[in-house]
């Protein structure tokens, strides 16, 4: 399998699992067991940190340099702390549908950051692909009338936007750091630093959770959030990051509202009509168009070939 294909598969699975995670997280926050957004996020950080450190020991992941460990602190601010904490807190005050609308802005944000920081060209094909995918995602979530039962909140939506901004910066600014470190090495340090940063703010929420009263199904959902939607996904993200371009990678965010709606249909919360089929088609078409756009390296190689032919 080609390296780019591996990258696309990894990011596809990541967004599939993230799509399932949004409604699951919302049900945990809406439960009657006083699990606050900060407490749930802290569970996520601690569980993932332990899992990544154990996995790094078992698979003997290489150690990072001291310089990179210091960079992990900054990377964890954007890729872990701001990204995850602001999204979960935002989701607690807005609906999954609203959160999905905001997530569709991530490719546009990343495209702008990539153009600014790594001089990634904004081609016509790339812009068209982003707009097609955005149209599909918006069609899907705006025609859903069942997942938007939570009160809409400008504050929550702004926090979700901040999550997208931080993730776009993480994908763009730390691509080289990600490329030169093993995924287990990268994630064990980032989640460790994320835990250290969040714990002082979440300690009170964590100790007041009524653990003995929580039923098994809620624990299973928390387990999914920690081990599947965090440990597994953040293990796969670096695999995709070093194999596909930032804008292409974030295009897969459009899969999340598709998966969220399909889960709602499966649970009997929604129906699947022609508009959802059209939305799904637009999402995948948008991803395809962006993946076919040329990177800066490809454009430079093409220009060099044309110059050689002219000579």
TrEMBL record:
Signal peptide start-end:
none
Record's GO cellular component, any one?
plasma membrane
Q: Which UniProt keywords apply?
A: Cell membrane, Membrane, Transmembrane, Transmembrane helix
> Transmembrane stretches, by residue range?
9-29, 35-57, 69-93, 99-118, 127-148, 154-174, 186-203, 218-237, 249-267, 273-291
What superkingdom does the record give?
Answer: Bacteria
InterPro entries on file:
Diverse_Substrate_Transporter, EamA_dom, EmrE-like
- Pfam family of this protein, just one? EamA
Q: What is its main location?
A: membrane
**Where found in the cell?**
Cell membrane
Lipid bilayer topology: Multi-pass membrane protein
Residues in domain EamA?
A: 6-141, 155-291
Q: What is this protein called?
A: DMT family transporter
Which organism is the protein's source? Candidatus Onthomorpha intestinigallinarum
